[in-house]
Design a protein that fits this description.
Strand order of the largest sheet: 1-2-3
Strand content: 15-25%
Shape: globular
Radius of gyration: 12 Å
Largest sheet: 3 strands, antiparallel
Oligomer: single chain
Length: 71
């Protein structure tokens, strides 16, 4: 997990002791209160701007997939 993040038994990602609504699937950063990139092809893939710009790919997600910017 990312710095300061922990995953309890129920599977919710906690950041600073609070559950994050959205997290980057690559670096696990909490992106609940910032701009995020949502893959239009993968069912549950959100990325922070840094990982998106670096072309991060993981599992079935590919950098060339269509996306939307969510703020």
């Amino acid at each position: 997990n990312g710095a300061g993040a922990e995953e309890p038994e129920d599977g919710l990602l906690l950041v600073g002791g609070k559950p994050g609504l959205y997290h980057c699937n690559y670096c696990m950063r909490d992106i609940s209160t910032t701009v995020r990139i949502k893959c239009a092809e993968c069912k549950d893939w959100d990325s922070c701007v840094d990982c998106f710009c670096a072309g991060a790919e993981l599992s079935g997600h590919k950098a060339y997939h269509p996306y939307r910017v969510v703020d």
